[in-house]
Amino acid sequence: MLQTCSLRIRVPLFAAKLLLAILIFPLCALAQQKTISGTVRDETGAPVSGVSVTIQGTTNGTQTDEKGHYSISAGVGSTLLFSSVNHDASTASIVADQSEYNISLKQRVSALSDIVVVGYGRQKKVNLVGAVGTVNVDEKITSRAISNVSSGLSGLVPGLAATQSSGMAGRNGATLLIRGLGTVNNSNPLIVVDGMPDVDINRVNLNDIETISVLKDATSASVYGSRAANGVILITTKSGKGAQKTALNFSSVTAIEVPTKAFAFMPDYSRALTLQQRRAATNTLPSNQTFRNGTIDQWMALGMIDPLRYPNTDWWDIIMRDGVFQNYNLSASGGNEKSNFFASVGLKNEEGLQINNDYKQYNARFNFDYKVRSNMNTGIKFTGNWSNFTYALEEGFTDPAPTNTAGFDMQYAIAGITPYDPVSGKFGGVMAYGEDPQAYNPYTVYVNALTRQNRQEATGTMYWDWTPVKGLTAGVDYGLNYFNQFQWNANTPNQAYNFQTASFGSRVYVGPNAAVSNITLTGYKTMLNGRINYHTLIKGNHDISALAVYSEEYWYERAQGSSRNDRLNPALHDIDAALTSVQSTSGSSSTEGLRSYIGRLNYTAFNKYLFEANFRVDGSSKFLPGHQYGFFPSVALGWRFTEEPFINGFTNKFLTNGKLRVSYGSLGNNSGVGRFEQQPTLSGNHYMIDNNIAIGIVNRKIINPDYSWETTTVFNAGLELGFLNNRLTTEIDFYDRLTTGMSRPSDLSLLISGAYNAPRANIGQMRNRGIEGNFSWKDRAGAFNYGVSLNASYNTTKLEKWNEFLARGATTTINNIAYNVFLGMPYNYLYTYEDIGIAQTWADVYNAAPQGAQPGDILRKDLNGDGRIDDNDRRAYTGISRDRPSTYFALNSFVAWKGIDLAVLLQGAAGRKDYWLNAFNNVNFGSQRYASTWNHWNSPWSLDNREGLWPRLGGSGNNTAQTSFWLDDMSFLRLKNIQLGYTIPKSLLRRIHATTLRIAGSAENLATISSFRGLDPEKAGNNNNLYPINKSYSLSIQLGF
Amino acid sequence: MISFLAGLTILSASCRKDLLKQDATTELDPNAFWLSEADATTALMGAYAATRPCFDRDYYFDGQAEYVRARGTSTTSGNLRLGDAYNGGNYNPSGYGSSFDKMYRYLYGAVNRANYVIDNTRKMLESTNPTSSSNLETVIGEARLLRGLAYFRLISMWGDVPYLGHTVFNNSEVADLARIPIAQVKDSIMDDFTYAFEKLPVKASLPGRASKPAALALRGKLQLYWASWKKNGWPELEGFTQNVSEATAAYTAAAADFKKVINDYSLTLYLNGDPGKIDSLGRADTLPNYYHLFTPKANGNSEMIMVFTHGGTGTDQGEELMRDFAGRSHEGSQCWVSPRYELADRYQLLTTGDFAPKLIPMNPTTNANARKALNSALNPASYANRDYRMKATIQWDYEMSIGMASLRSTGYVPFVYQKWAGKDTINGIEYITYNTDGTNSGYVFRKFVRNYAGQGRSDGDFAWPVVRLADVYLMYAEATNEVSGPQQDAIDLVNKIRRRGNLPPLQIDKKDTKDHFFAAIEQERIVELVAEGQRSFDLRRWRAIERVWGPPGSPGLFRIDTWGAQPSRYYQNTSDREYQQNYIFRIPPGERDKNPKLTQNIPWR
């Protein structure tokens, strides 16, 4: 223990040291040796094996056997220490007239929760005054088939929303959001891994992680000042500290994945053409319709006998497969009083639900600490990861980029195309008379037009600590994070083939002059910290510690891309393997610097009055001189009222621990502005003169000289209660986050916006208010060990200020998506037409406001009663955001009995509404090439189907408008994970020289209850994105030696 | 310990002194610019590049008239070079006036770019020696020409507009600008064109830059438009008064400018206006000169008085004419723009020099004789002996063009309406037919579509004409006809243009009265300038929308196809107000929300 603590000087553990010092004193007295024996039992009276029994202050020790027996030789006056991973330690002082000491150990309620990792240090949880959520990564988490750390955080921490929008292998990370949308700019939390900010959380090996801390309020986060406005996620990896012996661990998780829900495209071309006729019949004479009865009859008949020439392709079947997830890890850890280490290698392999969507990642890590002198420590952490990623389109089946013309073409994947004929080796195109030759064969894209990307990252950090005098530690950290990414495309030439006419159609999927494109991204980030810690205890009751850090961070990134047409052979994919006749190149680099001064002061009086103050000063190269520095201070107070005798006297029967804490402070954000955006520069805009490019230079910039940091001010009040010896713990937090000076491009007049990019201005103010709670019950009943924990959060986001004109229905555009903004409303609030259902008769139409409807069309309400339907008839909902729920909740429960454990995680959200409108449920589809779904067959209103759930096909254009008709409540409750594990008894393992073996079966996203008609109520973002979220069944093995 | 701390301090101090000063790597520090005369030219090129995308897709505007359909555009939203100025615009014959906020924005963008060149070059001029002053004046002249051009477009669409005559440094300078009466703006444009005319060289120093005749032709056109407005009135523009004598003066001045363009610079029509040779029906090995005029091969010829240039593959400055005018058979083009059925009847017979019997649409699925019947629109023989410009401009059934894929020719592609990418055997040779879903009339364009492979659909290097000599001839004829009726020199010029189509000179009944001659001029403008973005502006300045489509409340007109289907109908029971809205564009309401001084045009209030 002593070793452990001094090694942690870097992250002082003052109170623990104090405690130890008191314990260690008695050791000075030496006395006569005698044999001591006894039995160790737990609270239920069951014997506990494997408890380490040591004489304090020495290395002498033994372990209890299967019956809990031990025997050791010790001197009178010495102290025996009984310790075990799962139990609270206990001691016994040896007295002369007793040689049998039977000990009862208390089951530990939560093994690691007493110490919490915070920015630049660790603190005892009881003394914490900030709002910090923690996750200890144990075998219950690592045995799940979790693709990455971000999606694994779903439902584990109140106030942290982890929203997964796609199950695409390699792109299935969750969007993390702490306590609502803090800003309309980058609202992602800062990820810090082992002290190094800006690490991709999805590339961290879950198995390497010891704890994850989620810093939610200003006090806990303000040491990360400028980039902590949206909270911080601190990840600490494992070490060999305190290891009793060198341990080897192997784990494997193997899972099969299927979609939670998928689209039901109709693999029946003659029916699809019939739907085309029905749609066309609303406004086209039969003789002018695109498709003829003969074509349909022919297809219906011949489709039964000639699938090559008259296919009824089930595309979903062709382009989907069962996904596979595999994760293998091998690690070793160990240490002694001089040094300790943790080393691991891991492999993660994902085969996505879509064919040829694969992701493979290798991880390696080596953490090492060494005691150079009694007052000097050093250590390194080195980690690397390598990944290979293959995919067809950016979102798997779709691509929102307007430049990718295959982006939303799945809607054109008609059933009347043969994907591929293995006999002739040809890819099919359209064949039916009248069909649009541009109809889509997704198979050829997912086979012949793949993007491949490999990426390598290496992060190394080292530290050096020196404690010249008691309580004072100075140290230096240096870290480097390097990445290199290479992406290539080399599509295989192929052309649409018509098997009916045995000729190539006009659609060339990939031309014979197919290009090679290579893109390299590379860069690094460095960090240098100088630190000083000081800790002192005055008069035993005044615990003071202080921290000062100076920090420099620097980023460098460069991109280089090139492409050439006409490659020598389709098997080749590097640039030199193509002709130089048509080629293009691009390249650029960018840099950024950040200089910071950080300070923290902690003062704890009488172990019950807590005070903390923090500040961080950040200077960023992104701003103009004079506006580069931001100052972000915070203060917090805490009161452990259960330590007060006048309260304790009444409450000690049931209340073990109680703490009130309040914090207030500010945080910054500079992510809304580009690296060189504030620099007044001239840029190229070239022209052609005499058939040559003539350099043209223009001024596109108007600089806002006053532009500076976006600031978020957070007030947080929390109440922590531990009842019944901490079997029941509750933690409730209220917060108020106000983001001021929110950065947006300013609103330029059209008179100049055609020439100048709108300069950034600090124009907006947004407030998030919410409450979150965590209620957890853990106990033991006989051999049953069980726990239930409920966490829930409620948040409202409100735009309070916008220093520019906001018209009715105003939007602000980010990445080509327009979001509704208005004062007093949530960001992207719901602004919708309301409907009165589908018109059944002409009388219904005449009774409604005129809107060009016919029976079968959706009728909209004339909300303002002016007799016509226009923009002014939309209703704004003050409490509903279309993008994110207001309420999240999760119920985490487990029960363990004699090596068998069962865990269930339920997760849900409420308070979001959005339209179910996308390219695949369009009732007004085009006159050709449309991939109908079974809903198109069953749901549209017609005279024969008056109960139809959809309006008629080919009706009014308003039928596809954003009316409440298509609006769905996105609330859901999901059985996120259920896991059944069995730990093999140690007695059996001894024969194979193993120490632990656990086998577990686990299932993810097993069931979802929701009224949403679309793919998945959790998915956010692009409605056309077709990639489902995965349901998986896994088997895991964890073996330790 | 002190030494340790000192070490730490030194370490941190020595790290990166300039950590917070990181410079852009691909953009230029403004202090390193405007140092030499060459910088002025470089800045001017930036202004050209900013003005080009407000004019080089004017063909979409023809969709607002009766002979061209623009079913959409190939523009890329947010990318000015790729047509953002035209993006979102409505290119139907009616109901378009509220959809050109982006054009408004980018025209002012061009104005700002020009002002930047003008102001900075003027500053340079103050401190320069006389030898280089003429070069700098040329730069200013070109920039002023570009600025005038942008304002000319602005007043043509919106009437009164705010005027920016200098570089803007801050939004507050323009936040509360009011509209300036059109007459005043027109005078400023006149000043710009006049200055350009005085300072520009007779012949541009390098192909692609403006010259004297360009300034003069534009000044003439401005006065012709002004004359039209004054003569015909513009009731939708508040405060604008009709005035016949002002009109006459402007027509006269316009004619004078055009006359100079025609006579003083020895400009000739492309290949002297010779019709060239033409292939037989269904063949396209030899195409008339008029066709070649609209391919990159004709770049730099003297007919093109003012152009905006483009660059081919790899220059990032391509035009997308092929993408817009051709079908999938041509490098996957999209056929956003196609001829209306009604255009075909405008092409006159070589024999009579007058209109042919009207084509008769026939449906081949219900009429077995459709492809053989006399005057059937599906019978290629109905297209025999027509104005050469017909074959050079459009394709009807069984006309051929060179297909292309992956930058290589795929051989001839026959156009057969409604038989997309099907097999067809013609004269014993099997072809795959033209593939498009873009036309609903039975015709596609040949004009602007290259007949050789090697460039992608977005990599065209054609220099788009803003003013060409044929247009000047016709504008001269119009201006003189308005002042004093048909004049022999004007008739000769119209005949020169007809000669390009191999048509005989105008018969006497086409040139005997002012009205007849106007009709002849209009006929030539329709045929000669089709898809060059002139027609809808002509209809508006002539106040001819009612004449073409029928008066308010009338049944309107169908646009049909060669099979007799009626895909669309325009101006059916259309209100007065919508007509008014088609005569003047809507001042962007978002701008008015922020600037109370900005008034709205009458029909948009």
The biggest sheet of chain B amounts to:
2 strands, antiparallel
Q: Largest sheet of chain A, if any? A: 22 strands, antiparallel, barrel
The low-pLDDT segments of chain A are 1-31
Number of strands of chain A: 54
Over all CA atoms, what is the radius of gyration of chain B? 26 Å
- Distance, first to last CA of chain B: 79 Å
What does this protein structure show overall?
The complex is a heterodimer of chains A (1041) and B (605). Chain A is mainly beta. Chain A contains 14 helices and 54 strands. Chain A has a 22-stranded antiparallel beta barrel. Chain A has a 5-stranded mixed beta sheet with strand order 10-15-16-13-14. In chain A, strands 3-2-5-6 form a 4-stranded antiparallel beta sheet, with no helix packed on it. In chain A, α6 runs antiparallel to α7 (293-302). The longest helix of chain A has 12 residues, at 269-280. Chain A is globular. The model of chain A is unreliable at 1-31 (pLDDT under 50). By secondary structure, chain B is mainly alpha-helical. Chain B is built from 18 helices and 12 strands. Chain B has helices at 2-15, 37-51, 101-126, 130-158, 182-199, 212-232, 244-264, 289-293, 321-325, 341-344, 388-393, 469-484, 488-500, 514-528, 535-541, 545-549, 576-583, 589-594; strands at residues 68-70, 304-308, 337-339, 394-395, 399-405, 408-415, 423-426, 429-432, 444-445, 464-468, 557-559, 568-570. In chain B, the strands form 6 sheets. In chain B, strands 1-3 form a two-stranded antiparallel sheet. In chain B, strands 2-10 form a two-stranded antiparallel ribbon. Chain B has a two-stranded antiparallel sheet with strand order 4-9. In chain B, α13 runs parallel beside α14. Chain B is globular and about 80 Å long. Chain B starts with a helix and ends in an 11-residue tail after the last helix. The model of chain B has no long low-confidence stretch (mean pLDDT 94). Classes of the chains: A mainly beta (1041), B mainly alpha (605). The interface between A and B is large, with 86 and 99 residues.
